[in-house]
Every structure is written in C-alpha cells, then in structure tokens.
Design a protein that fits this description.
Length: 277
C-alpha cells in the first residue's frame, strides 16, 4: 500500500545535508543521529558558500566540530545574483539555466563522495539551504529529500495552492493575522514548498507587537526554531530512518501529493502533527 521513504532493512540511513548559513538545523540533525536508538548518520555537509561577512558560516563550523566531511561549491560564482537576475525576464532565464548547471555539478560532487566512501546516500536534508534544489540533483533524490519550512502548509488558498510559502512565510502568516505559527517538514518538490507534508510541528503563539514588522517576525521565527522546527526535524529523521514514514502508491491529494503514512496509518494533509512535550 505504501512505499517507505527508507527501508531500515538496508541498515543505517546515510544522509547528505545542504546548508547556507548558521547551520542550526544541521546541528540538530547531527545531535539526533548520535543519540541511542537512532538509525541514521550525517556523512557529508554541502554548502553554497564558505564565509559570510568575512567569517566562516556556522554550518561549516559545526561540521568541523563534529568531524563531518564538508564540501563547498560557491553558488554566487556559478549562478550570479538572483537579486539582480530577477529584474529582467532575460536575467531570470539565464539564472534558471545557470542553476540547472550548478545543480548538476552538485550531483557530480555528491556522486564523487559516494564513490570515494563506497556507499550511496539514502536521503538529502536541506538544513537552511537557500539555493534552488532542482534539476538533476532533485531527480536523484525524488521523494528522498526533506526540507524544514518555517510555516504551516496546511492552509490553502481558494485555488488549492498553499498560502504560506517562500522565504517570507512567517512574516506573511503573522501579517495575515495568524496568532500561531508552526513548522512543516516536507519532501522537496520542483515547485516551491509544494512537496508532501510529513510532519507539522507544535504551534507557537506570537507574543510580539502589531502591526507586524520584519524584525518582529524574525524574532518570532528564531523562537519557533527551538520549539517547533528542531523537534519536528529530529522526529522526522528518526522516524524515516526506522521505516515509519511511507508514501501511498494509490491515493493522492487534490494537489497531486501522495497520502503520507505514519506507522501504516494514513495521515491528514498536514502530515503527522507533533505536539508539545
């Protein structure tokens, strides 16, 4: 009825992580992997930059601290500036083409590491990764890549599309009048934040000022990380590694995503809802 995202009969689930900044999601994944009873390992960190404002990004610092291999392919050099590219149609087209090439090169990097180490990655984790994950790389990890999205994706627009997507999702939700926010762990899809929802994290009340500002939304998002993002990510990785998440092969939601199964039970559209401890 369902196909497991990872079958534990294969042994330990091998994970490659992608990150662009502070690396806190990466850190939480590593810490969970090293707890008793976990069945996954984070074996490689891939970043799109080595430094930000002259300092080594947090993700690489964590990789060094935990003794995890890391590789960098500079996204700005390969793709150029999206801020500049999006100003014209020609710029957008060129950026898209460069992104496809960049992702193909990332796949070559990952494949080279696999060949060097003698194993194949079972899962890709986007841990605060701010570049497009698409093309050849996305196809390699179809239904085998997860992302932490900082907003609730169960709320839909009248046309059935998801309401709170993109980089500004927390601000958008609070600006729309939401009094609570919660994170989502989703499968990576070619479209923005469109993949199947595996886990919806605990709800976090907004206690800041209104009207909402980007600064207040940022403060709330940072608070949400500890109380919703990280517990959800840890739960998802552990559950996937034990074969507890599967995708229904015959039942689909109106948006085309398969029903998610957790421990053999069909989940609602928003996936498994994690509660506060």
């Amino acid at each position: 009825m369902g196909e497991m995202i990872f079958d534990p009969a294969r042994g330990t689930m091998r994970v490659v992580a992608f990150a662009s900044g502070s690396g806190t999601n990466f850190r939480e994944a590593v810490l969970e992997s090293r707890l008793p009873g976990s069945n996954f390992s984070i074996d490689l960190l891939v970043t799109d930059k080595e430094t930000k404002k002259g300092e080594t990004i947090g993700a690489i610092r964590y990789a060094k601290e935990y003794g995890i291999a890391h590789r960098t392919l500079p996204g700005l050099e390969w793709c150029g500036s999206w801020k500049t590219a999006q100003q014209t149609i020609e710029g957008r087209v060129a950026y898209e083409q460069k992104s496809q090439v960049y992702n193909h090169e990332l796949l070559r990097l990952v494949a080279g590491f696999e060949e060097e180490k003698g194993f194949v990655f079972d899962l890709a984790l986007l841990a605060g990764y701010m570049r497009l994950f698409k093309g050849a790389l996305q196809r390699r990890f179809t239904n085998r890549a997860i992302n932490v999205h900082p907003a609730y994706l169960g709320k839909l627009n009248p046309d059935g599309s998801r309401t709170y997507i993109g980089e500004n999702a927390v601000f958008d939700a609070l600006h729309a009048g939401e009094t609570m926010t919660r994170s989502s762990i989703i499968l990576v899809d070619p479209e923005t934040d469109a993949g199947a929802i595996l886990v919806t994290g605990p709800s976090i009340a907004y206690a800041g000022d209104r009207p909402i500002t980007q600064n207040e939304a940022g403060k709330h998002q940072n608070f949400q990380k500890e109380s919703s993002d990280w517990p959800s990510l840890r739960f998802a990785l552990r559950a996937i590694s034990h074969g507890e998440f599967a995708l229904h092969q015959d039942k689909f939601h109106p948006d085309g995503n398969p029903f998610v199964l957790y421990q053999g039970k069909e989940m609602p559209y928003q996936g498994y809802e994690l509660q506060k401890e």
